[in-house]
Design goal:
36 strands, single chain, 569 residues, 14-stranded mixed sheet, globular, 10-stranded mixed sheet, alpha/beta
């Protein structure tokens, strides 16, 4: 397909210039034709008016991923944990009440008013319909403090993933066991402080590694075992700082790295980062790809300007599609047999033909501008919390003929108002901007957010307690009683505790007790990844042009895929 630029545009939000490619225009035409097949009228999908960053920010501002609150279910009045704080006006149900048949979201149905903008009417419906307190699916055992998750057992503060056992403090995962402090990990066990790792066992402080075992402080390594502080190694064993040792010498030298001491660990991390920066870097990370651009892409074909995507085809501007998708543009999170989606947040599980949706999944199809429509919901426009329904607008039932006629008129109304093609405005979000994922990737001050009309979650009036307990420097000296102590994060001052499950891990693997809260540790892991942006650079070996997530002013030496493989594999 011709990948030339079709038009150069200026972002309506930040005023930055951005390109719209011919492949983008071809996809927008395909989406229009797909919906024309079900709605029987010509639907034009316009080129975006905002740049990729602003489009992603707009979607992310509707998702609270990590902030949990204690409150009561507004239906059964039982205590629960939810992503909605008790001071919000939203009606919030626990998962048992929300999924039960004891209420009907159709009772909140509205007639469409053509004298008012669509987003204004959507906001009224969205605010009125009860919200799901935590999005957890499948059997959850002893995992109350988890959100956006499926089938967990004995997990604590884990978010955005499925199938985990005995895991703590992590985000974005698939089929893991006994892991702690992680970001984007799959098919792994006994891992600690790892980022974008897969099929790893008994690894600590590792980043962007595959099939590595019994190792610590690895970056961009594949198939390594018993290695320490290495980068770019392939099928290696008994290496330290990329230098080969005998098994006996390796074990002797490893004993000298006392990472069970917090002071030693912090100093070693700084030294290791200097070593990592000095190593050549592949322009983008990924394997088994064909014609792609972005970072952390695996088993993809014709995927462009995308990040953390696995097993996908014909996608652009997508992030965290870790379970695969086809024909998706501007989609954040999920996948899993997702087919043809445009400008959506958290969609997947067999869903198809979606546009501007939020948490629409489980074989839903032909759904536009809707949220939390699941389980085979079909032909929806502007709906909230519907299941097994068809031909609905603003939660009101219509005949198939009435539905098609009404959607055509709403489409024309939104085009005239400049709303068509846009995701829900940030102002319609239920969350404070600082509670959302957007606040993590695109941080704003309170003053800036409020000036833009965004919600803001004010901090609780109480002050954090100062830490009175002095944590012993060495893990060997830490007593059992530390689990009863209130600690204070050395970065943000937030109080946190060490739970018994993590103390067992620290002792078993000789790792120092952290002095930072789980949120600050998460942000540090996020900061260890490249930004979701691409720049043109040249390969340090061949001189050929490459697209990379390493900014031009960074010191790393960048290699094309061909040159990287030639040098390290």
């Amino acid at each position: 397909m011709n990948n030339g630029i079709a038009v150069q545009k200026k972002c309506a939000n930040c005023q930055a210039d951005f390109p719209v490619y011919e492949r983008d225009m071809a996809f927008y035409e395909k989406v229009g034709q797909t919906f024309k097949g079900s709605l029987e009228f010509d639907m034009d999908i316009p080129a975006p008016t905002e740049c990729w960053d602003c489009r992603q920010q707009r979607r992310q501002a509707h998702r609270n991923e990590r902030h949990l609150y204690a409150r009561k279910c507004d239906k059964c009045q039982k205590d629960m944990i939810a992503i909605f704080s008790a001071d919000k006006s939203d009606t919030v149900y626990c998962k048992d009440c929300w999924w039960a048949d004891g209420w009907d979201p159709m009772e909140y149905g509205m007639d469409f008013d053509f004298s008012r903008p669509f987003f204004e009417q959507w906001k009224e419906l969205y605010d009125a319909v009860p919200k799901l307190g935590l999005i957890v699916l499948g059997e959850m055992q002893n995992s109350d403090y988890a959100h956006d998750a499926y089938r967990l057992k004995n997990c604590y503060l884990t978010f955005d993933g499925e199938q985990a056992w005995d895991c703590l403090y992590g985000e974005t995962f698939l089929k893991i066991k006994d892991c702690m402090d992680f970001l984007t990990i799959s098919q792994s066990e006994l891992c600690y402080e790892v980022i974008n790792c897969s099929n790893c066992y008994d690894c600590r402080f590792c980043r962007f590694c595959r099939t590595c075992n019994e190792s610590s402080f690895l970056v961009d390594c594949v198939g390594c075992k018993n290695c320490f502080a290495c980068a770019n190694l392939h099928q290696a064993e008994y290496c330290i700082l990329n230098k080969q040792y005998s098994e006996e010498e390796y074990k002797k030298r490893i004993a000298g790295y006392k990472i069970g001491s917090f002071k030693v660990l912090e100093e070693f991390k700084k030294d290791f980062e200097k070593f990592v920066v000095a190593q050549p870097k592949r322009a983008y990370r990924g394997v088994k790809n064909e014609d792609v651009s972005g970072d952390n892409l695996n088993n993809c074909k014709d995927v462009y300007h995308s990040f953390d995507v696995v097993g996908s085809r014909d996608c652009s501007y997508c992030t965290n599609l870790e379970i695969g998708a086809n024909d998706c543009f501007d989609v954040d999170i999920w996948g899993d047999k997702l087919n043809l989606a445009l400008n959506c947040e958290c969609v997947g599980a067999g869903a198809q033909n979606l546009m501007c949706d939020y948490y629409v999944a489980m074989n839903a199809s032909n759904v536009l501008y809707s949220a939390f429509c699941w389980n085979g919901a079909n032909d929806m426009f502007g709906c909230m919390a519907l299941r097994h329904k068809k031909c609905c607008v603003l939660n009101k039932q219509y005949s198939e003929e009435e539905y098609k006629d009404l959607v055509k008129r709403i489409y024309e109304h939104m085009v005239a108002n400049g709303e068509w093609g846009q995701f829900f405005p940030i102002e319609t979000s239920s969350f404070g901007y600082n509670e959302t994922v957007a606040g993590e990737f695109y941080p704003l001050s309170r003053e800036d957010a409020v000036a833009r009309g965004y919600n803001w979650k004010e901090k609780e009036a109480r002050e954090f307690l100062k830490q009175k307990y002095e944590i012993p420097d060495r893990i060997e000296d830490v007593p059992d009683s530390i689990v009863d102590e209130v600690l204070a994060c050395i970065d943000c001052g937030k109080n946190f505790k060490i739970v018994s499950q993590e103390l067992v891990y620290y002792r078993k693997h000789g790792v120092a007790v952290p002095r930072r809260c789980s949120d600050c540790r998460h942000l540090a892991r996020r900061g260890s990844k490249n930004p979701r942006r691409l720049w043109e650079r040249t390969c340090a070996r061949s001189g050929e042009a490459v697209l990379t997530a390493y900014a031009p002013d960074r010191p790393e030496e960048i290699l094309s895929t061909k040159e990287y493989v030639k040098e390290f594999f």
